[in-house]
Amino acid sequence: MKTHTLLMPLDMHLHLRDGVMLENVAPLTAYSFSGGIIMPNLVPPVNTLEDVKAYRARIMAAVPNDFFEPYMTLFYRNYDKAFLQSVADDITAIKLYPAGITTNSEGGVSSFDIEEMRETLEVMSELEIPLCVHGETDGFVMDREAEFMSIYELLAKNFPKLKIIMEHITTKAAVEMLDKYENLYATITVHHLLLTLDDVVGGMMKPHLFCKPIAKRPEDLDALLGVALNAHPKVMFGSDSAPHPQHKKESCGCAAGVFTAPIALQLLCEIFEQYNKLENLQDFISDNAQRIYGICPEFKEITLEKRPFVVPEHYGSVVPMYAGEVINWAIASVD
Amino acid sequence: MKTHTLLMPLDMHLHLRDGVMLENVAPLTAYSFSGGIIMPNLVPPVNTLEDVKAYRARIMAAVPNDFFEPYMTLFYRNYDKAFLQSVADDITAIKLYPAGITTNSEGGVSSFDIEEMRETLEVMSELEIPLCVHGETDGFVMDREAEFMSIYELLAKNFPKLKIIMEHITTKAAVEMLDKYENLYATITVHHLLLTLDDVVGGMMKPHLFCKPIAKRPEDLDALLGVALNAHPKVMFGSDSAPHPQHKKESCGCAAGVFTAPIALQLLCEIFEQYNKLENLQDFISDNAQRIYGICPEFKEITLEKRPFVVPEHYGSVVPMYAGEVINWAIASVD
């Protein structure tokens, strides 16, 4: 049987939620990943040192039997230097949301006034705290990410020493930005390496494939595959795995988010193998992230094997991507 | 109170389904419309004279107390002259579906070979039977209608005496075709005068606003409003009102179709009033269709008044567009 081994997989964009949902989903990621960048868009958002410490403790309590490092983040606001210095040791990044752009982002940034943001972003540059950005405007749904490129440029030019991560990129426009500024990086989800808008609304409408940013056009998918499969050094895997209870997905107003955490590695093997690029998956799944973030995850070795695997219909209250469907790789062992 | 009166409203693209659903939805249209072009995509499709007569009888039985004319259609296949002559008196149009493009269209046209279609389309021209077309390719969901324009051109050029109705157009590209060929006409739904893709998947995902063709970009909406509001003489109202039971809309694979029949006139008054074009609604709702199709519907006078109206949550098993929301016009009387 064909197998493939990955070392220290990292999920550089992960929603673990809180409470019962946290207890349900955190072990699924902790089982096969060495660590993950934990999104701070709880209600209320994570924006104090106490919040960070308490949320980290709740995550660790939810995964008692695994070696798993939750790389904590703060919800971006304009913070002063003293505060940033006080939290720097406890966070790995700060996540910026434009206000109201996705789930629980109401307290985000409502205007990109560089002078108002300058102190925060300069101190982050000094302290080497990366800025993770949900890069969408409030424009037409297919244009939101492309329209945000001018804001990435503004940030990249004004803060050349700030590492800026374009989160969950979905467009050719974002891929093209990667090589334009030295300090721009990106995460890509597994579902955005598989889907276009066609899969979401081209046949039946599929609520479990509905996410923000929404999957885009075929040429966008090709551009994303181009950098992921070829181990572009500035591109990292970030699942954006975003669990919602089933009733919030299958109703007259469906929440945005695709749940992929427990099948991400399997799907990535399938995609990379399909294009004969399995040898590049290690860079995408861990090595690039280690270098970009300067992190050293605990050792974990995951062996996957090529055999049919039926995706469970549910993980607790959450329906995963491809629920009930057969995928072609499965996890064989975790060491 | 502000009122507006419409004479002989016609719905030139209507799905009445069959059985219990027919009995549920047909009275809702018959109440406020003088007649409608009845889509033939039943299972199996309507494609014999007996089918047409029997379906017409079932429709009439479902609306015993109303003056309502179901303008019957056949499901397009390549028919011979003798057959078309035998059905000409019992049908108003023939509806062409590309194979598999929407609900119950599996038996449609799989390749547009003009020579194979020539006999049918020439006889239809002679007999003055309009061809109604669902104009979408099987391409990327946002491009399907625009890609179909070359097929409209092929049909319009090869059969200059055939009246070709571009059904439920959703794009600027289709609007621009209208004036390019004398024999091209169009229907527009009320939901495509209200929605863009943003409304369907830009915030929450809205299964009750999901239809085929899918709502497109803001510039497409503007182009559609441009011709509808200004009473373009080749443009008619066709609701494409497409009822599905609630459980087929709110599930992990949602069927395409927006149910608007009982609120279409109210919404149209609201839209046309908003743009100060109420005086043009009569052309859009009836007069253009009468002239294009050469039909003379029975007299019906509908008076609407401007007052808040809460759209019911359900009509039987069907959830309408804007269920539970307030719209600003209501039907005051039907004579």
UniProtKB/TrEMBL annotation, chains A, B:
Residues 11-255 form the Amidohydrolase-related domain. Zn(2+) 2 binds at residues 95, 134, 168. The keyword DNA-binding does not apply. InterPro entries: Amidohydro-rel (IPR006680), DHOdimr (IPR004721), Dihydroorotase_CS (IPR002195), Metal_Hydrolase (IPR032466). Zn(2+) 1 binds at residues 13, 15, 95, 240. Keywords: Hydrolase, Metal-binding, Pyrimidine biosynthesis, Zinc. Substrate binds at residues 15-17, 41, 134, 244, 256. The modification N6-carboxylysine is found at residue 95. It comes from the Bacteria. Homodimer. Belongs to the metallo-dependent hydrolases superfamily. DHOase family. Class II DHOase subfamily. HAMAP family: PyrC_classII. This is Dihydroorotase. It comes from Candidatus Sulfurimonas baltica. The lineage of its organism: Bacteria, Pseudomonadati, Campylobacterota, Epsilonproteobacteria, Campylobacterales.
